[in-house]
C-alpha cells in the first residue's frame, strides 16, 4: 500500500517519459497514457513498454531520496526544481523497471535486462539499484555452472563490452565465469560473435575448464574459420589473432585429432609438432621430464584440471602415462627437482614385469583433490597403467562415478575388484576391447595352437594365485549399475559369479563376444542380479539355461508342451533391452517362450537366431523402439504384426530375411495391385512409425520405398542389402524422401555417376557412405562433388577405373575422412600411398584390397598415417617387407588390428610379433591363397593363374594369453 506522502497534494511530480527508441515502437499506441506510482504493483510492463509516451505521477521526495539525478534536478538550482512536470528521454522498459524498484517492488534480473537496468541506475544515480545489479551478477557468475533461464551468451558479451568501454570492475568475474563454462560458451550459436579479446582472456584464465584439450582446439579453430573470409585463408597466416593457438597444449591432443589437423591452414604447423611430440612420448621406453622440456616450465604437459572439472576426457591419447597423469594432479608450486626425479623413476618401475603397484610409495606424490570430477575417459590410452592410475583416481577424484577404459588390453581383468574398492562410488565401467573374429558359430577351424601365457603382463601375486576371479568379493557391496565387458575373452564363469555377488545393483551388463563364458555362467548372473533390465549377450553361449533363468515359472516340460502364458513375475517381463544376436544355443521353442514374456522390452536383437513367425506372433510388447531380426526366417506378416503394435519403433534391421521376399511374391500372385501399391510390411511402417534407422534387403523395392515415405522423413541411417532392388530411380528419390540422412550403405544396387553425385550434393548431413559390390562402375565424375562432413567412405568393387588422379580429387572434396575402404580399384599405383597419407593424415581405419600395385614397392608413405587403429592391405602388390607388422605397430601407437595376405609378402612370409613387439595390437590376420588356373583354355597359353583363398591365420591377444588359430574363412 502506498504511503500518505505518496498521495499528499503538492508532493508529486509528473514525469513525461519519452522512449528514446520511439521510432521502433508500435505505431498504433500514440494515445496518451497516464499512470501513478501509487498503483506501481499493478503496472503491466509488457504492454507499457511499447508505448512511446507515458505520463507518470510520482512522489517527488521519494525520487529525490533514491536518485542523485532527481535530487539535483528537483531540489537544486535548476529551473525544473519548481516545475510540476518534467520530461525524461530514456528506454521505456528499463525506466519503468527502475521506478518500480524505487517504489519498493521486487526486481526480476536476467542477463537480458541487466545492462539496461545497470545503465539506468548509473545515469539516474540509483545507488541501491546499482548494488542490487552488482550483487546479482556477482552471485550468478560466482557459481561453477550455467543458469540457463537467466544467462545468455550474447547478453554476457554486451555486458563485457560495456564494462570494458566504461572501465567497470566486474570484468574479471565475468571472464572467469565464461572460462569456467567454456564448453557451454562454445556450444552457443553466437559463439563466433565473441570478441577476440574476450576469447583470449578466457583461454588464458587459470580457471579455464574443458573436458579435453581437443575441445579447446576445436573451438578456437571454429572461431577462426567463422571470422575469416574464405578468400583470405592463405593470407590469414600472418594475422595476429593466430597467437591464441599458442595457448593450446598441443602435446596433450588426441593423436587422430592432431594428425587430422595437418591439413588445416591455421593449424598445420602446430599439428606437425603435436604429432611428433605425441609419437615421441608414446614410443618412449622411459619418461623423463628433464629430457622432454629441459627442466623448464611443465605447463604444456599438464592436463587442465580445475575445481569445476566434471569430465576428464583423455581418449585416444597414446602419450598419456601414469607419471604424466600424476604431474597434472600435483600442485604446480610444489614440483621440485626431487619430485620430478621420482616421477621419472616411477615410469621405470612400472615397466618391470613383476611390479606390484601396492609397493609404490604413493605418499611421495601429494596429489590434489578435484571433488567435481565424475567421469574419466581413458579409452585408447595404451601407455597408461590402469591399475596404478586407479590409485591416483581414488585419491584425486573421490566423486568418480563413471570410468571409460575401452581398448586398454593390458589391463588385467582379475584386478577389477580393485576398481570397486578404490572408487566406491563407481556406478559405470566400460572395459570394451575389439571383438575377436574367432566366433565359433561362424568359423571352420582347421587347427589351433596351445595358448601362450603372457608372463610379462602378470605380477608375482597373480602368478602364484592364477585362479583369483576378476571380481573378488568385497565386504562393501558395489554400487555398479552398468558394466561393459564387450569382447573380453579373459572373462570366465567364475568372474560372472563374483560379479553377481558383489554387484547386487547391476542393471545393465554387456557381454557381447565374451566367448569364454558359458550358458550356465550367464544364467547364474541373471538369477542373482534381480535389478537387471538390460542384457547384451550377442555372439556368446547364451542358451537354454539363460532362458530358464529369465522365465523361472516354466519347467522344461512346459517348454516342450508349448504351454505359453503371461508370467508377470518373471525376470523376462522386467527386461528393457535384450540383445542375443548370433546365439545359436536357443531352439525355436525356448525362443518363443522368451519372446512371449518380454512385455516391456524397448530394444530387441535376435539376428541370426532360430527366430520364426510363431515367436513374433506371441510377442505382446508395445514399447519397442529397436528391433533386429536380420538373417532369420520371419515373414512379412509376422513382422507387420509387431510393427502394428509398436508405433514408437525407431529402428528396424531386417537384412538377410529371405522369407520377406517369399511373402511379397505370394501377395503379388494373389493381388498384384496390393503388392505394387502397398506392400504389407512397408504399408504398416509408413502408417504407424517415424523411423530413424532402417536396414532391409530381400523384397525391398522402389514400390516399398514409396510406401515407406511417411515413416522415413527423419531417417538418419538407411541400409539396403542383398535382395533389395531400388533401381536408379529409387536411389535418386532417397535424398528427397530422407533429407536428414547421416549414414547410407548400399549393397548390390545399381549405381551410376548421377546417383552418387546426387547423394553427395543433396545430403548435406551425410557422414557415412558405403557402396559395396554394386552394379554399374562409377567414374571420376562421381568424385567431383564436395562432401566436407563425410567421415567414412567405402567403395568396394564399384570403382574399378579409379586412378591416382581420381583419388587426389577425392582427397580435395572429402577432406575430413577418418575411415576409408577401397576394394577392386586396380588402376591405383604406389603413388597412391602418398596421396592417401597427405590427403587424409588423420585416418583411423584404412582397408585396401585388390588395388592394383599400391604396395608393389613396399609400404612407405602409409606409415605417415600414424593415427591408424585398423589396417588391412591385401592383394595390392608383391612388395611388403617381412617385418611389416612389427614395424607398423611401432610406428602407429594406436594400431590394434592388422590384416595382410601372404600373396603380398616380398619374402614369402611375415614375422609374427611377440608380446613386446606387438605394442597395442589385439588382432592380426594373415591370409594365404593357392594359385589356381582360371580356365581350361588358359592352360594351353601358359601358367596363367589366379589366387584362391585357402586359409587365414589369426593371432589374438588378451590380458592373459596369445591365441593362434587357422580357419578356412577369409577374415
UniProtKB/TrEMBL annotation:
Q: Where is the BACK domain?
A: 176-229
Q: Which SMART domains match?
A: LRR_CC
BTB domain location: 55-135
Query: Cellular component per GO?
Result: SCF ubiquitin ligase complex
One GO term (biological process): SCF-dependent proteasomal ubiquitin-dependent protein catabolic process
Q: What does this protein do?
A: May act as a substrate-specific adapter of an E3 ubiquitin-protein ligase complex (CUL3-RBX1-BTB) which mediates the ubiquitination and subsequent proteasomal degradation of target proteins.
* The protein's name: BTB/POZ domain-containing protein FBL11
Amino acid at each position: 500500500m502506498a504511503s500518505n506522502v505518496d498521495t499528499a497534494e503538492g508532493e508529486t511530480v509528473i514525469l513525461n517519459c519519452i522512449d528514446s527508441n520511439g521510432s521502433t515502437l508500435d505505431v498504433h499506441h500514440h494515445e496518451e497514457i497516464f499512470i501513478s506510482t501509487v498503483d506501481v504493483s499493478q503496472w503491466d510492463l509488457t504492454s507499457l513498454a511499447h508505448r512511446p509516451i507515458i505520463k507518470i505521477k510520482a512522489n517527488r521526495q521519494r525520487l529525490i531520496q533514491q536518485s542523485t539525478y532527481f535530487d539535483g534536478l528537483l531540489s537544486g538550482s535548476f529551473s525544473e526544481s519548481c516545475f510540476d512536470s518534467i520530461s525524461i528521454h530514456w528506454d521505456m522498459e528499463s525506466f519503468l523497471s527502475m521506478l518500480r524498484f524505487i517504489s519498493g517492488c521486487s526486481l526480476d534480473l536476467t542477463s537480458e535486462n541487466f545492462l539496461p537496468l545497470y545503465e539506468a541506475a548509473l545515469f539516474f544515480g540509483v545507488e541501491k539499484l546499482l548494488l542490487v545489479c552488482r550483487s546479482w551478477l556477482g552471485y550468478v557468475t560466482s557459481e561453477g555452472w550455467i543458469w540457463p533461464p537467466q544467462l545468455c551468451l550474447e547478453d554476457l558479451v554486451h555486458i563485457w563490452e560495456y564494462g570494458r568501454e566504461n572501465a567497470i570492475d566486474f570484468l574479471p568475474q565475468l571472464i572467469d565465469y565464461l572460462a569456467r563454462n567454456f564448453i557451454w560458451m562454445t556450444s552457443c550459436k553466437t559463439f563466433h560473435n565473441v570478441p577476440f579479446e574476450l576469447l583470449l582472456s578466457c583461454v588464458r584464465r587459470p580457471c579455464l575448464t574443458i573436458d579435453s584439450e581437443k575441445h579447446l582446439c576445436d573451438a578456437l579453430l571454429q572461431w577462426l574459420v567463422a571470422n575469416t573470409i574464405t578468400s583470405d585463408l592463405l593470407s590469414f597466416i600472418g594475422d595476429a589473432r593466430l597467437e591464441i593457438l599458442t595457448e593450446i597444449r598441443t602435446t596433450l591432443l588426441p593423436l587422430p585429432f592432431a594428425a587430422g589437423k595437418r591439413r588445416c591452414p591455421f593449424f598445420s604447423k602446430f599439428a606437425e609438432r603435436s604429432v611428433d611430440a605425441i609419437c615421441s612420448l608414446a614410443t618412449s621406453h622411459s619418461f623423463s621430464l628433464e629430457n622432454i622440456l629441459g627442466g623448464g616450465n611443465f605447463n604444456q604437459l599438464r592436463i587442465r584440471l580445475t575445481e569445476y572439472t566434471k569430465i576428464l576426457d583423455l581418449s585416444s591419447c597414446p602419450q598419456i602415462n601414469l607419471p604424466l597423469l600424476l604431474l597434472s594432479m600435483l600442485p604446480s608450486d610444489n614440483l621440485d627437482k626431487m619430485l620430478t626425479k621420482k616421477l621419472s623413476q616411477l615410469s621405470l618401475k612400472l615397466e618391470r614385469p613383476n611390479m606390484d603397484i601396492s609397493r609404490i610409495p604413493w605418499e611421495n606424490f601429494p596429489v590434489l583433490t578435484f571433488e567435481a570430477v565424475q567421469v574419466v575417459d581413458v579409452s585408447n590410452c595404451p601407455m597408461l597403467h590402469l591399475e596404478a592410475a586407479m590409485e591416483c583416481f581414488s585419491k584425486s577424484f573421490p566423486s568418480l562415478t563413471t570410468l571409460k577404459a575401452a581398448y586398454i588390453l593390458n589391463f588385467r581383468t582379475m584386478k577389477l575388484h580393485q576398481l570397486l574398492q578404490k572408487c566406491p562410488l563407481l556406478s559405470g565401467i566400460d572395459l570394451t576391447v575389439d571383438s575377436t573374429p574367432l566366433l565359433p558359430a561362424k568359423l571352420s577351424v582347421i587347427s589351433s595352437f596351445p595358448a601362450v601365457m603372457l608372463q610379462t603382463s602378470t605380477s608375482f601375486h597373480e602368478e602364484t594365485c592364477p585362479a583369483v576371479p576378476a571380481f573378488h568379493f568385497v565386504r562393501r557391496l558395489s554400487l555398479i549399475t552398468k558394466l561393459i565387458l564387450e569382447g573380453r575373452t579373459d572373462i570366465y564363469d567364475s568372474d560372472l559369479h563374483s560379479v553377481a555377488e558383489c554387484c547386487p545393483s547391476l542393471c545393465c551388463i554387456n557381454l557381447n563376444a565374451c566367448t569364454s563364458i558359458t550358458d550356465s555362467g550367464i544364467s547364474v548372473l541373471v538369477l542373482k542380479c534381480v535389478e537387471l533390465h538390460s542384457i547384451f549377450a550377442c555372439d556368446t553361449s547364451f542358451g537354454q539355461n539363460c532362458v530358464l533363468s529369465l522365465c523361472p515359472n516354466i519347467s522344461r516340460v512346459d517348454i516342450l508342451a508349448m504351454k505359453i502364458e503371461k508370467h508377470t513375475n518373471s525376470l523376462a517381463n522386467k527386461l528393457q533391452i535384450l540383445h542375443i544376436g548370433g546365439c545359436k544355443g536357443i531352439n525355436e521353442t525356448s525362443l518363443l517362450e522368451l519372446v512371449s514374456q518380454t512385455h516391456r522390452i524397448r530394444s530387441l536383437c535376435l539376428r541370426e537366431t532360430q527366430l520364426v513367425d510363431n515367436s513374433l506372433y506371441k510377442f505382446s510388447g508395445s514399447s519397442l523402439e529397436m528391433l533386429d531380426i536380420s538373417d532369420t526366417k520371419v515373414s512379412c506378416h509376422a513382422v507387420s504384426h509387431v510393427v502394428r503394435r509398436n508405433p514408437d519403433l525407431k529402428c528396424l534391421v531386417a537384412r538377410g530375411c529371405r522369407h520377406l521376399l517369399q511373402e511379397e511374391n505370394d501377395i503379388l500372385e494373389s493381388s498384384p495391385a496390393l503388392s505394387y501399391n502397398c506392400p504389407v510390411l512397408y504399408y504398416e511402417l509408413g502408417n504407424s512409425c517415424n523411423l530413424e534407422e532402417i536396414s532391409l534387403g530381400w523384397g525391398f523395392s522402389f514400390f516399398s520405398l514409396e510406401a515407406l515415405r511417411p515413416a522415413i522423413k527423419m531417417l538418419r541411417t538407411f541400409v539396403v542389402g542383398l535382395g533389395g532392388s531400388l533401381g536408379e530411380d529409387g536411389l535418386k528419390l532417397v535424398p528427397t524422401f530422407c533429407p536428414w540422412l547421416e549414414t547410407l550403405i548400399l549393397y548390390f544396387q545399381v549405381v551410376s555417376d548421377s546417383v552418387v553425385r546426387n547423394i553427395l550434393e543433396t545430403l548435406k548431413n551425410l557422414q557415412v557412405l558405403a557402396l559395396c559390390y554394386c552394379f554399374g562402375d562409377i567414374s571420376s565424375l562421381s568424385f567431383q562433388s564436395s562432401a566436407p562432413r563425410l567421415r567414412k567412405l567405402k567403395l568396394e568393387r564399384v570403382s574399378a577405373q579409379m586412378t591416382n588422379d581420381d583419388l587426389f580429387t577425392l582427397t580435395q572434396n572429402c577432406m575430413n575422412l577418418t575411415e576409408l575402404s577401397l576394394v577392386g580399384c586396380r588402376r591405383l599405383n604406389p603413388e597412391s600411398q602418398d596421396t592417401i597419407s597427405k590427403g587424409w593424415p588423420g585416418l583411423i581405419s584404412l582397408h585396401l584390397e585388390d588395388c592394383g600395385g599400391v604396395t608393389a614397392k613396399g609400404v612407405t608413405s602409409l606409415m605417415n598415417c600414424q593415427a591408424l587403429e585398423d589396417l588391412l592391405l591385401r592383394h595390392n602388390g608383391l612388395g611388403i617387407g617381412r617385418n611389416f607388422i612389427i614395424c607398423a605397430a611401432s610406428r602407429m601407437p594406436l594400431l590394434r588390428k592388422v590384416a595382410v595376405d601372404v600373396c603380398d609378402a616380398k619374402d614369402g612370409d611375415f614375422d609374427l610379433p611377440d608380446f613386446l613387439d606387438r605394442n597395442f595390437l589385439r588382432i592380426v590376420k594373415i591370409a594365404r591363397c593357392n594359385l589356381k588356373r582360371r580356365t581350361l583354355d588358359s592352360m594351353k597359353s601358359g601358367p596363367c593363374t589366379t589366387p584362391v583363398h585357402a586359409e587365414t591365420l589369426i593371432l589374438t591377444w588378451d590380458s592373459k594369453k596369445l591365441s593362434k588359430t587357422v580357419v578356412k574363412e577369409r577374415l
